[in-house]
């Protein structure tokens, strides 16, 4: 088993980047398998914080090779800005040497972003609250077979093919009274960013990864967004545009499921989500505000306030089931420290009186049934040993282990890279 997977089990923002950054030194390769610059993995190093968008979270490990896989979509402009920001953050890093990009990853074009804005603001379309980064447009054009890929940038007719798409999209967008940047301006910025992209290694990453595995190399596959935002299995239509599950890692990287080992699933001790969509345990009172402020629950990319709710066990069980999670990582337990009690949704009661304990898609009138658990006191962010955790927090962890069927093996105790404890649950 050469490839392990890390993915989120809720609606994103669970703390994947921090965990990957922590464990990636035990791997030879970290690889992003889905999504694009709509992701935001925040990492804290040397008391500084950076948000990675398209780059794998192992980019800080100089002995680790990093891969942007075939299942992703790449925005050359955002990519250039991210690389420059990374070098400003840590001038010793040389991503040109330890980053490989799939030739088959699809490109995000400037008009994709403009089309995203147009659809979000047009009442004729379903509004779901996207980040307006053009991700859905890139994926939809991929499915329509109307897009270009990273490998196309070396084609002699690349510029003319891109201009044809940009001009076509621009004509559509120009119908109306919308204020648009000039076509010349967005084209110039895009082609300059493509020239920057050419500095980086580009190859068929599925072959690269499988060859590495035949040599005994270990891969850590990194998912963006989370299971409940999966295009097929999430809370459709309020989902992302790619496969965010463990199965998506196989297709997005071209690695057989037979070669998958551990599947790490990350969840907060409560729930958050951004944008629209079902959120049965959402809090609309002062408690939600308190958790949001204490947990700094604002979008890594957009700064949008995240919606807050109690931990949803039926949704979590569903995510564990469809991903085959083998180990759980619990984050943000420190945010709930000091509360007299915490709530957990254990099941849903439907209108006809039936009970659901594993929730995929539920009717809107499903009522979450909450269980009250004792809260825990004390500052846990400085603890170095799991044995020193408050007894009530240990009880909370034991409750989750019994309910979920997948052991909680790591506990994050704060935002810092070293603020994580290995538990004796496996």
TrEMBL record:
Q: How is the cofactor bound?
A: Binds 1 Mg(2+) ion per subunit.
> Which reactions fall under this protein's catalytic activity?
IMP + L-aspartate + GTP = N(6)-(1,2-dicarboxyethyl)-AMP + GDP + phosphate + 2 H(+)
Per UniProt, Mg(2+) binds at: 13, 40
Which CDD domains is this protein grouped with? AdSS (cd03108)
User: Which sites are catalytic?
Assistant: 13 (proton acceptor), 41 (proton donor)
What's an example Gene Ontology biological process for this entry? IMP metabolic process
The listed locations are: Cytoplasm
Molecular function terms, GO-annotated: adenylosuccinate synthase activity; GTP binding; magnesium ion binding
Binding residue positions for substrate:
300-306
Q: Which Enzyme Commission numbers does its entry carry?
A: 6.3.4.4
Family matches, as PROSITE patterns? ADENYLOSUCCIN_SYN_1
Q: Which cofactor does it need?
A: Mg(2+)
This protein is called: Adenylosuccinate synthetase
């Amino acid at each position: 088993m050469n490839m392990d997977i890390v993915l989120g089990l809720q609606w994103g923002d669970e703390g994947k980047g921090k965990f990957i950054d922590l464990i990636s030194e035990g791997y030879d390769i970290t690889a992003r398998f889905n999504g694009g610059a709509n992701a935001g993995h925040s990492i804290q190093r040397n008391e500084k914080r950076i948000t990675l968008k398209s780059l794998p979270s192992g980019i800080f490990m100089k002995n680790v090779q990093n891969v942007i896989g075939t299942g992703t979509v790449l925005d050359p402009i955002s990519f250039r800005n991210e690389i420059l920001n990374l070098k400003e953050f840590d001038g010793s890093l040389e991503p040109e040497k330890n980053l490989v990009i799939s030739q088959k990853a699809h490109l995000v074009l400037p008009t994709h972003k403009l089309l995203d804005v147009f659809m979000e603001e047009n009442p004729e379309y379903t509004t779901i609250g996207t980040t307006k980064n053009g991700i859905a447009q890139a994926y939809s054009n991929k499915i329509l077979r109307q897009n270009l890929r990273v490998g196309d940038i070396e084609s002699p007719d690349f510029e003319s093919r891109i201009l044809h798409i940009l001009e076509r999209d621009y004509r559509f967008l120009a119908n109306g009274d919308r204020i648009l940047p000039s076509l010349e301006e967005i084209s110039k910025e895009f082609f300059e960013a493509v020239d920057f992209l050419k500095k980086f290694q580009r190859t068929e990453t599925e072959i690269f990864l499988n060859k590495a595995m035949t040599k005994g190399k270990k891969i850590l596959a990194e998912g963006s967004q989370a299971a409940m935002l999966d295009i097929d299995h999430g809370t459709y239509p309020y989902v992302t545009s790619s496969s965010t599950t463990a199965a998506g890692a196989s297709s997005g990287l071209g690695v057989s499921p037979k070669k998958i080992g551990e599947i790490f699933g990350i969840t907060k001790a409560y729930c958050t989500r951004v944008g629209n969509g079902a959120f049965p345990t959402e809090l609309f009172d002062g408690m939600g505000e308190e958790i949001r402020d204490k947990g700094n629950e604002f979008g890594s990319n957009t700064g949008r306030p995240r919606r807050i709710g109690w931990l949803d066990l039926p949704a979590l069980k569903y995510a564990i089931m469809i991903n085959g999670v083998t180990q759980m990582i619990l984050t943000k337990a420190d945010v709930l420290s000091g509360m007299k009690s915490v709530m957990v949704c254990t099941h849903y009661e439907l209108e006809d009186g039936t009970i659901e304990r594993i929730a995929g898609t539920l009717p809107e009138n499903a009522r979450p049934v909450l269980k009250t658990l004792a809260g825990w006191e004390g500052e846990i962010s400085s603890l170095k040993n799991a044995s020193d955790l408050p007894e009530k927090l240990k009880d909370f962890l034991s409750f989750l282990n019994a309910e979920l069927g997948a052991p909680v093996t790591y506990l994050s105790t704060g935002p810092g890279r070293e603020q994580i404890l290995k538990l004796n649950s496996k």
